[in-house]
Specification:
Blueprint: H1 2-9, H2 13-34, H3 43-56, E1 67-70, E2 91-96, E3 99-100, E4 103-104, E5 107-113, H4 118-139, H5 145-159, E6 169-171, E7 178-182, E8 195-198, E9 201-204, E10 208-211, E11 214-218, E12 223-225, E13 237-238
Parallel strand pairs: 5-13
Antiparallel strand pairs: 1-2, 2-5, 3-4, 6-7, 8-11, 9-10, 11-12
Helix pairs in contact: 2-3, 4-5
């Protein structure tokens, strides 16, 4: 079984092109969705807009239903969009993806609707640093999934006790979660040619959460980030 998983994980040029195409469409839809954010708009209205744009852009089969969360709802890892309205000072989380020729994309971005407060900034910068540390470990040639997960997890644990409630990432292909798995007890070794997500997150009930997720192609000598949406703090602030 494992052999099949490993063979499937290594992407051909054509497979990779499909994943990248799906991701570029997602990036366009995300940009357009950001333009629709205004006071009192609901999560479900934005999620519906995202779904309709994917259809219009010729990618109607989504990787998963779009996750759109405002305010305290960003503490829900898999928030289901509802009638919650956007207000100034809210954290906003998008987790979206679509498919091209059955190949999936996956991306999460977190934004602030107006200038973030000190605690919001602290969480965002911690998650970003955890992600950067994990990616740097991959760049240096680390291929053991649990070691990569540990780098991000230990860094976040020092700042926020046990609030990183899921694995660091997963393989992406014709299904949205495929082998290999980046989590604490994973024995998986990342082969060159596979695409994995790196998506640390912090979730504080009653306050909100931050997750930042990029798709990373593992290469022989390092990695290539397939996600082209900025993730620095300044880019995450939406002026209201």
């Amino acid at each position: 079984m494992k052999l099949i998983q490993e063979v499937r994980a290594v992407k051909s040029k054509r497979e990779l092109a499909n994943i990248v195409r799906a991701q570029r469409i997602s990036e366009r839809v995300l940009r357009e969705a950001l333009g629709k954010l205004k006071i009192n708009v609901t999560e479900s209205a934005i999620a519906e807009f995202i779904t309709k744009r994917f259809i219009k852009l010729g990618a109607p089969v989504l990787s998963f239903p779009p996750i759109v969360a405002f305010g305290k709802n960003t503490a829900n890892i898999h928030n289901e969009p509802n009638k919650t309205k956007l207000k100034k000072g809210d954290i906003i989380m998008f987790d979206i993806g679509t498919t091209v020729n059955h190949y999936c994309s996956d991306m999460t971005r977190t934004y602030f609707f107006g200038e973030p407060n000190a605690k919001q900034k602290k969480i965002y910068l911690a998650v970003l640093e955890a992600q950067n540390r994990a990616i740097k470990k991959i760049q240096k040639g680390e291929r053991r999934a649990k070691v990569i997960d540990k780098i991000a997890r230990e860094f976040l644990a020092k700042k926020f006790k046990n609030n990183f409630k899921h694995g660091l990432g997963h393989g992406v292909g014709t299904v949205i979660h495929e082998w290999p798995n980046l989590k604490p007890k994973s024995e998986d070794i990342l082969p060159a040619g596979c695409v994995v997500t790196v998506e640390p997150g912090i979730y504080l009930k009653g306050f909100g959460g931050v997750r930042i997720e990029d798709m990373i192609l593992i290469t022989k000598n390092g990695y290539k980030n397939l996600t082209k949406v900025p993730r620095d703090l300044q880019s995450a602030i939406i002026n209201v």
